[in-house]
What does this fold into?
Amino acid sequence: MLHAARRALPAEAVHDHHVGILSALERLITRGRQKGAFRDDLPSHWLVGTIYALVQAAGDQVEAGQFTSEEALGALEATLVSALRQPDA
It folds into this structure.
């Protein structure tokens, strides 16, 4: 979707949308930490950036024909679960 949005929308509209997404991810990380589900040993801005970068990478893989959408979603989920999970104490 990111690639399609960049082709179809003005850069400012894409940027504004991404700011909203990043804000929503920040809130998600905060809630996950409060419930003990997400790691708290790394800064939240790092985790938000990690999520965002992986989503972009998944889209790139689909666009390049290296993954189907379903394969990309599976790889994305597996990678994010391991990246966000609270490390063993």
Summary: Residues 3 and 22 are 17 Å apart (CA to CA).
